[in-house]
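Renewal narrative, Specific Aim 1. Our central claim is that a sequence can be written position by position from structural information alone. The example that follows is taken directly from our test logs and has not been curated for this report. It begins with the structure tokens describing the chain, in the order in which they were read.
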């Protein structure tokens, strides 16, 4: 009996509590603190008799609060790659426009550097002809040789121009020497390409072919071909008889004149061809003695490898001629001419 009465009283008390508490819970502001909700829930659970409840839930669950609307998130801009903080709901967000990057400088193409063509070196100005007084023409046959540079050095030091009756050389050293002779204002004369007596004096055509071969070489090398020549052995040589027979030199000399060449023999011999190596003193004395009584002296000397004493004698020969009043000049087609043979 007592147990029934207690049950009824408990039920009444529970009902009264529901009448008082549930409205409060339902009408409570959604912003109520979580502690208040927990307090009512714990008190009700204390008053209610224990009963099994589903796993993971409380005996009395408050209705879920309706979802609240959230302000839209602030859009990201392309200019800033890191996330931007959200702006307050009351602020208007102005999107940041991307800053245009400066255009890359355009490099103008650099035109290639074109070297100006090297102008061709002009030919040396011709030395004015000496027309008055005593004139000496230094001539050197059979070069270029190992002695040519030494001869040119002496002439350059003495400021004298000379005439070189050369033979044919196609090697680099020969080409260099042709160019130096020409560059320094001396005259190149044709002394045949081969200087072989039995070849050049075999016939008129044989001689002209050899002469033209040297002309072509000098034209390619220095830009001009000679119009003056000297016959190997001179115009009155006798070695030509062995190859061409009697009268061959008359025929050749006449042909060369008709082709426009001027040929020169000599009226002063240095005697440096008398032996392979003539003593220096003999060269000096023979040259000075032979030139002493002449107003025009065409002096024969040789520019061949063995003629080392000719090089040694040259400075003294020049001083001796100057002491006698000679001036120096180069041979030209219209220069004073001495010939052993006149066809």
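The sequence written for that structure reads:
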């Amino acid at each position: 009996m007592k147990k029934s009465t207690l049950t009824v009283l408990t039920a009444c008390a529970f009902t009264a509590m529901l009448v008082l508490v549930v409205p409060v819970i339902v009408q409570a502001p959604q912003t109520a603190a979580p502690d208040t909700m927990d307090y009512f829930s714990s008190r009700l659970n204390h008053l209610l008799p224990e009963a099994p409840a589903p796993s993971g839930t409380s005996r009395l669950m408050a209705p879920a609060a309706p979802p609240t609307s959230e302000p839209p998130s602030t859009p990201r801009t392309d200019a800033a790659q890191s996330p931007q903080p959200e702006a307050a709901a009351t602020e208007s967000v102005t999107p940041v426009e991307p800053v245009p990057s400066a255009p890359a400088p355009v490099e103008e193409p650099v035109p290639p550097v074109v070297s100006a063509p090297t102008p061709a070196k002009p030919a040396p100005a011709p030395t004015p002809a000496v027309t008055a007084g005593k004139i000496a023409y230094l001539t050197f046959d059979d070069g270029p040789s190992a002695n040519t540079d030494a001869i040119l050095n002496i002439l350059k030091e003495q400021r004298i121009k000379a005439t070189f009756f050369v033979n044919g050389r196609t090697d680099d050293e020969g080409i260099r020497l042709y160019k130096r002779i020409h560059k320094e204002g001396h005259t190149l004369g044709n002394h045949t390409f081969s200087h072989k007596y039995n070849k050049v004096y075999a016939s008129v055509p044989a001689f002209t072919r050899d002469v033209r071969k040297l002309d072509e070489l000098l034209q390619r090398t220095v830009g001009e071909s000679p119009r003056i020549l000297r016959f190997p052995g001179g115009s009155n040589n006798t070695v030509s008889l062995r190859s061409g027979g009697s009268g061959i030199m008359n025929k050749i000399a006449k042909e060369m004149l008709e082709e426009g060449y001027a040929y020169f023999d000599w009226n002063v011999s240095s005697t440096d061809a008398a032996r392979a190596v003539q003593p220096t003193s003999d060269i000096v004395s023979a040259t000075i003695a032979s030139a002493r009584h002449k107003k025009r002296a065409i002096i024969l000397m040789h520019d061949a490898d063995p003629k080392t004493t000719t090089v040694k004698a040259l400075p003294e020969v020049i001083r001796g001629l100057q002491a006698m009043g000679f001036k120096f000049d180069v041979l030209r087609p219209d220069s004073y001419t001495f010939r052993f043979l006149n066809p």
